[in-house]
Amino acid sequence: MFALQGDVREHLYVLERLGARTLSVRRPEELAQCDGLVLPGGESTTMAKLAVTFELFEPLRDRIAGGMPTFGTCAGMILLADRVLDGAEGQETFGGLDATVRRNAFGRQVDSFEGDVDIAGLDESVHAIFIRAPWIEEAGDRVEVLGEVEVAGTTKIVGVRQGHLMATSFHPEVGGDDRVHGLFVEQVRRT
Ligand code: GLN
User: Fold this and answer.
1) Residues in contact with ligand 1 (CB, 6 Å cut-off)
2) What is the pTM of this model?
3) Domain of residue 82, CATH code
4) Position in ligand 1 atom list of the atom nearest CA 47
5) Residue 170 above 70 pLDDT?
6) Looking at the domain assignment, is residue 2 inside a domain?
């Protein structure tokens, strides 16, 4: 669990309910002990800056590129994306996910909203909470779409998987529904 910034505790609660062994990662030695990583919601620019300060940026980028299962929610999705639109000047990401993510995509009027989203691999829809959320504007061929929402008559991608990487625009760590994390924990166990 990336623990330099963001809603770390909410993720830890879910992961522990699912029976995963968790570790808060703030330094490279801790990252080295992980079989999988969650990048939380929060502020992607701050997380990237703190990762540089704590000398985690390069090790994280290398582990993600090297196949460590990683799940990013909201700001975490931005950090996994290879390309960011409406990012802060010079915003850097860990990358790995062959996708273009638009930051704060839902716009000011609908800063935050909730809705039911069908997620591939789950029988019933997930009640999804979006907070200044990004969406995926373009996804490469290797990216599998897990979930979409309709915004002003167009379909926007809000959940994806690409091999060992998973990302959602929304916050499955909030609201008590552990099934999306369940998909990720299963993947870590298989790896
Ligand atoms: N807008 C935030 C960012 O750019 C993400 C918001 C969130 O994680 N809830 O990092």
Assistant:
1) 41-44, 74-75, 78, 103-104, 131-132
2) 0.96
3) 3.40.50.880
4) 10
5) yes
6) no
